[in-house]
């Protein structure tokens, strides 16, 4: 099994395309963080309390000057005011201009990690059929299940590598631009009941990346399944990325129906539970995990069953 895994990793990392994707990810991360750094106002004389007090005053002014604001916007402004007042009373500086603020902003690029991994996953099995190397692969004494498993694991390893590159590059660049002095700042958020919570910023970062990785795993597993079923990398990439971009839109359209909670993309964004804001009333983290496990098993069962039965001579 280790030899199979080593062989699959060599196929991935010997290609120039792989290293170009890694370098492109670093470039995109750097560009995003530099833009955000330049667009975010610096603290006046390093006094974050003055900035927070100004934000509180602006929020109260907005509520008083426009009485016709929608209720949801009023609630958001009120929550922001409460959070800022909590920061002042507890001497908690904002995390926006800290090293962790940059790392959290970089989490938005996990979708890029997903796209890059889908490209590799879609070519993993389909590329063997297209290049005619599948016969050479299957004459080995290893079972088809082990061969497919080694391909799947190598893809997951590649995704972990990209996540490490994203996290590491954002941490170092943010530290260089913002400094590492506020590495112990707290994360403040308000839940649906308008109750303020103070949690560890490191724990929040881990949760944010972890929850976003769920979408990554499901889309990549789907691409791997499609690559195995249709033996076409372009079709696997097209369908997977199409669903990645359209899936959330469909989620919005069907969210009014109770059965929408069983839809894949209603459950892939586990970050909805970070602030206790499920998309469909009654959904819980445990429920979403259970739904995702079912989809995950179905995707893999399709991949394994069809790959084991496929006639490669055809």
UniProtKB/TrEMBL annotation:
An example Gene Ontology CC term for this record = plasma membrane
Give UniProt keywords alphabetically: Membrane, Transmembrane, Transmembrane helix
Keyword Transmembrane on this protein? yes
Q: Does Iron count among this protein's keywords?
A: no
Read off the Pfam families from this record: ABC2_membrane_2 (PF12679)
Segments passing through the bilayer: 20-37, 106-131, 152-173, 209-226, 233-250, 285-307
Q: Name one GO molecular function term.
A: ABC-type transporter activity
**Source organism's superkingdom?**
Bacteria
Looking up PANTHER family in the UniProt record yields: INTEGRAL MEMBRANE PROTEIN-RELATED, MEMBRANE PROTEIN
Q: What is this protein called?
A: ABC transporter permease
């Amino acid at each position: 099994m280790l030899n199979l895994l080593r062989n699959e990793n060599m196929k991935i990392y010997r290609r120039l395309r792989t290293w170009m994707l890694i370098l492109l990810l670093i470039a995109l991360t750097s560009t995003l963080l530099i833009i955000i750094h330049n667009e975010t106002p610096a603290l006046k004389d390093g006094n974050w309390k003055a900035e927070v007090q100004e934000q509180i005053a602006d929020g109260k002014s907005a509520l008083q000057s426009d009485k016709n604001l929608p209720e949801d916007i009023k609630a958001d402004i009120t929550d922001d005011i409460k959070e800022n007042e909590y920061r002042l009373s507890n001497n908690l500086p904002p995390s926006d201009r800290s090293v962790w603020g940059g790392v959290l902003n970089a989490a938005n690029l996990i979708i890029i990690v997903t796209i890059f991994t889908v490209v590799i996953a879609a070519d993993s099995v389909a590329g063997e059929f297209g290049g005619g190397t599948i016969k050479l692969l299957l004459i080995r004494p290893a079972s088809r299940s082990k061969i497919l498993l080694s391909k799947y694991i190598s893809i997951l390893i590649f995704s972990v590598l990209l996540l490490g590159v994203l996290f590491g590059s954002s941490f170092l660049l943010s530290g260089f631009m913002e400094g590492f002095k506020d590495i112990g700042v707290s994360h403040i958020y308000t839940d649906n009941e308008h109750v303020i919570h103070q949690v560890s910023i490191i724990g929040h970062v881990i949760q944010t990346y972890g929850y976003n990785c769920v979408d990554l795993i499901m889309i990549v597993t789907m691409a791997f399944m499609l690559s195995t079923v249709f033996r076409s990398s372009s079709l696997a990439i097209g369908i997977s990325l199409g669903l990645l971009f359209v899936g959330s839109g469909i989620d919005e359209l069907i969210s009014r129906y109770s059965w929408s909670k069983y839809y894949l993309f209603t459950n892939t964004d586990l970050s909805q539970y970070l602030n206790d804001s499920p998309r469909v009333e009654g959904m819980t983290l445990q429920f979403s995990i259970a739904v995702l496990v079912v989809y995950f098993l179905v995707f893999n069962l399709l991949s394994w069953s069809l790959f084991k039965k496929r006639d490669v001579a055809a």
